[in-house]
Amino acid sequence: MSENEIDLYVFGQPPEGVPTVAESFLENPLVVVAPIDHPLAGQKGIPLERLADEPMLAREAGSGTRMAAERLFAEQGLRMTVRMELGSNEALKQAITGGLGVAVLSRHTLPSEFPGGRLTWLDVQGFPIKRHWYVVYPKGKRLSVVAQAFRDFLLQHSAGEAAGTVEDAA
To answer: Which of 103, 113, 125, 158 is the S-S candidate for 57 at Cβ 3.0 to 4.6 Å?
Structure first.
């Protein structure tokens, strides 16, 4: 972004310390995902304390999804037990399917698995964590016609969502 090589970005969390315009265009709920045969599958209102006992699979440190989950645990005086860090959502889903643990993922990464797939999400207190997707571009950048059209498309087709603009003055 600092090299001004790409017109638009889609982020789950706008970058800090970089002068940008970030416009939310879609809710991005984070859910706890487990194998379909997990002992907690189907239970309602699972306490976060119980989830803290589970081996967690997580994205790399600094990931917005991981930071949101760690923040929720910390607010309750808990700590996630991270068994393994993986660099992609697809790798996390494969590890969950293999029974290596549970993970917090964006609900948008899961459409092909639900319903009737090999994964399920758990009904854990405090989840889903409500977040948003943002279309982001450098502050002061004049967008190309194509980039502007794509930005407009995202914002117009998510009119049912609570959209807004955040400008980082950094």
So the answer is: 103
Bridge partners of 85, per DSSP, are 58
Q: Residue 89: which of 123, 117, 119, 127 has the closest Cα?
A: 119
Number of domains in the chain: 2
pLDDT confidence tier of residue 109, bands split at 50, 70 and 90: confident
Query: What's the Cα-to-Cα distance from 167 to each of 23, 87, 156, rounded to whole Å?
Result: 8, 29, 19
pLDDT score, position 163: 47
- Digit-coded pLDDT (tens) for 31-64: 999 999 999 999 999 999 999 989 999 999 888 8
**Are 116 and 142 in a shared domain?**
no
Q: Is residue 3 part of a domain?
A: no
Strand (E) positions, 17-162?
Answer: 20-27, 30-35, 56-58, 82-85, 102-106, 119-122, 132-138
